[in-house]
Amino acid sequence: MKSFWNQCKEEIKKKLNKSHYEIWLEPTSIVSVGDKSITISVPNSYYIDRINKDYLSIIKEAVNSIAKKDVNIEFIVNINPLEPAVSSTDHEQGNSRGGDDIDRQIKTAPFTGLNPRYTFNNFIVGSCNQFAHAAAKAVVEGLTTYNPLFIYGGVGLGKTHLIQATGNIILNKYDNKRLLYVTSEVFVNDLITSLQHNGMKIFRDKYRSLDILFVDDIHFIAGKERSQEEFFHTFNTLFESHKQIILSSDKYPREIPKLEERLRSRFEWGLIADIQPPELETRIAILKQKAEEHRVTLPQDVAEFIANRVKSNIRELEGSLSRIIAVSSLKGKEISIHLAEDCFRDIFKTREKVISIGDIQKAVAEYFNIKVSDLKSKKRERNIAIPRQVAMYLCKELTNLSLEDIGKSFGGKDHSTVIHSQRKIERLFKENNEISIAVKLIRKTIEL
Amino acid sequence: MKLHNLLKNKQLIFEFHTTHKYTFKNFVVCDENEMAYNISLQISQNPLKGINPIYICGGSGTGKTHLLQAIGNSIKKSFPFLSLLYVSSSDILKQYDNTLSYEEIIIISKEYKNVDVLLIDDIHLINNADSVQEQVFYIYNELISKGKRVIVAGRMLPEYIIGLNDYLKSRFLSGMITVIKPGQDTIKKSILKKMALDENLIISDISADYILNHFNRDINELHRVIKKINHYSLGNRRKVTPELIKEAIESL
After folding, report:
1. Do residues A243 and A193 share a domain?
2. Which of A220, B16, B131, B181 could share a disulfide with A184, CB 3.0–4.6 Å?
3. A175 plus A264 within the same structural domain
4. Is A116 within the bounds of a domain?
């Protein structure tokens, strides 16, 4: 069924402008094939309008030519675009035939807020997160009563991944668990909207009748009085009826500022598991797996190069990988250590800090082993004049300051002195290798 | 009633305001900005595809705003059905002013979450405004999870923005980062001449050198100088000559 639609897509691709194809047809997937009709799922209702208006005839042509008969095409909106619509029918009765049936089933599938992309399979375990991982697994197995399970760790270390994966596996394992994943933001917004529209009963029914409640980034609830109050009661109701609560935060409960004491103590009732920044081996493993997901080959030396430089955080690690992939396709070069150096030079080395005249003077004085005050003096000895000219040259190259300002910072010289210095150094570059090496080295220390 | 008024007043802000003068065509490409230019061009041809977010980093006057607006203008033209929004952090700070209730904040954030392409300029100005950063974080998460496009520009790399929260730093570092370095003087000279030409001024190499030697050599400053020269020449009804430029500059 999938390959049928892929064939159709290939056919359509030939007939459409590339960017139109990528926007309007790439995100579609097939839901069902009947005798006389097929059902295509699209991300939202705007797609249906747009496709009906502009692309229906092209699609029809392609489908008919591949199916070799006249087929009706129906569109439905996929409520969870990342999840292949087919799988959501699996755990229902399963005798789905027509598009109508599927349509109904998708609409009645309970909303969990979970993204199926996060699984335990693509969660890499290292000693940094092994404890949190084990705790989450234990909750899934229902072996223990860790309630609440409180997972904390710095930004970009995989808290969301871990708790969503927990949710997804529970969803697969048990048919009739009512679970809901929300961020604190969703909880807070939901509450405020409910208060405004007299919808508190619905709100309470929604949150207090769950079997498992996941709240991501719970620390954002701190300082919001009404939300903390409501969450306190939600927590109590669930806890008393032995329902599971799983929370994540960027800090240990006691360290969350402005968090109410009664919530803090409750968060500490169950199990608190931390996630630490990954070690080198884990970082390399993560890069390799991510590269596989992107279907690119990542040479070992490049993986090590990145893993050695991005240490604190998985999100940035993955970001670095996607960056090198993007640059490699932009430049049409294969991923190699050279490309990596090229791609990250600006980011790892220069760090684009704002370079001041003071930084330059300090670095130059250090290199030539003279005093910064010498640079600003009127001394004309060669061992001071040359460094001064080098410093002025670098100020002009590395800052946006006016030549007058640069001159002033060197003991009140005027702009023509700066120009003169620049020309002199540029000339020396050609004649005197020593100077060009000196400038290069100083530049490096400044930009580091 | 208050909410209603709020929405009415805010409505205008959610229209895409860009200056049409910023396009890819009049962007002067040089070694220092080539990568940023290519990436921007690619995004504008394929707004919802590829690595996300894009972070453009460069000192004042290196052309960040120009690129952001060029992306905006180009997308608006080729993909009129996409809704896009260009804001500077200072606009965002103004919008979420301290007197708002949380209900009102939610309404504003909701508007932001509805766009397909969000371009945020001068992100470094958002530092130290914690509650606003929190909203930007929510907006960012929502847009990224829906596969929308986010492009951010700032003077420094996220990690060097003092007062920017870690959760934003880490997110801005998770996509494409491209650094524009200060341009060389030859490039600046051609930019300067081009800017002058936009004001219908023709300036000689000597005059251009003179300007570059006497002022902060960032683009905004140069722009200001060109305007002054133009005014001075119009005000005094004299042709633009090196002498006039000197006089105009001295009168500044």
Report:
1. yes
2. A220
3. yes
4. no
- Is residue A137 domain-shared with residue A269, that is, in the same domain? yes
Q: A residues 82-111 near B, CB within 8 Å?
A: none
Reading chain B (252 residues) residue by residue, the pLDDT tens digits are: 444 555 544 444 455 666 777 889 888 888 888 889 999 999 999 999 888 999 999 877 788 988 999 999 999 999 989 999 999 999 999 989 888 888 889 989 999 999 999 999 999 999 888 899 999 999 999 999 999 999 999 988 888 888 899 999 999 999 999 988 876 666 777 778 877 887 778 888 878 877 877 776 667 777 888 888 888 888 888 877 778 888 887 776
The answer to whether residues A365 and A340 belong to one domain is no
The amino acid at residue A5 is: W
Rg for chain B, CA atoms, rounded: 20
Read off the CATH number of the domain in which A313 is found: 1.10.8.60
Does the distance separating the beta carbons of A402 and B216 come in below 8 Å? yes
Token pair in block for residue A429? 């570059």
Partner-chain contact A403 B213, CB within 8 Å = yes
Beta carbons of A287 and B11 less than 8 angstroms apart: no
Residue B132 or A311, more confident = B132
- Which of B48, B60, B213 is the best residue to mutate to test the A interface, defined by the most A CB atoms within 10 Å of its own CB? B213
CATH code of the region B184-251: 1.10.8.60
Residue in B145, B160, B178 nearest the CB of A353: B160
In-domain check, residue A338: yes
A77 and chain B: CB distance < 8 Å anywhere? no
- A296 plus A259 within the same structural domain: no
- Distance, CA of A93 to CA of B190 (rounded, Å): 70
> Which residues does residue A315 pair with via DSSP β-bridges, in sequence order?
none
Q: Assess if residue A395 is contained within a domain.
A: yes
CB–CB contact B182 A22 (8 Å): no
Q: Of chain B residues 81-140, which have a CB less than 8 A from chain A?
A: 81, 102-103, 106, 134, 138
Q: How confident is the model at residue A83 (pLDDT cuts 50, 70, 90)?
A: very low
Q: Which fold has domain B3-179?
A: Rossmann fold (3.40.50)
Number of domains in chain A: 4
Q: Are residues A261 and A139 in the same domain?
A: yes
Query: Residue A91 sits in which domain range?
Result: 2-104
| Separation between Cα atoms, residue B105 and residue B126, nearest integer Å | 16
Q: Which of A192, A316, A327 sits opposite B174 (nearest CB)?
A: A316
| A419 vs B: CB within 8 A | yes
In a mutagenesis test of the B interface, which of A152, A194, A316 is the best target, namely the one with the most B β-carbons within 10 Å? A316
- Residue range(s) occupied by CATH 3.40.50.300 in chain B: 3-179
Give the residue from chain B lying closest to A160, CA to CA: B141
Would you state the structure tokens that stand for residue B10, as one six-digit string? 């805010």
CATH number, domain with residue A16:
3.30.300.180
Q: Residue B10's pLDDT is what?
A: 47
Q: What is the location of CATH 1.10.8.60 in chain B?
A: 184-251
Q: Per-residue pLDDT tens for A153-180? A: 999 999 999 999 999 999 988 878 899 9
Express each pLDDT in A93-111 by its tens digit: 333 334 444 444 444 457 8
Do residue A58 and residue A91 come from a single domain?
yes
Whether residue B103 and residue A196 make contact (CB cut-off 8 A), yes or no, is yes
Instruction: Say yes or no: B158 contacts chain A, CB-CB below 8 A.
Output: no
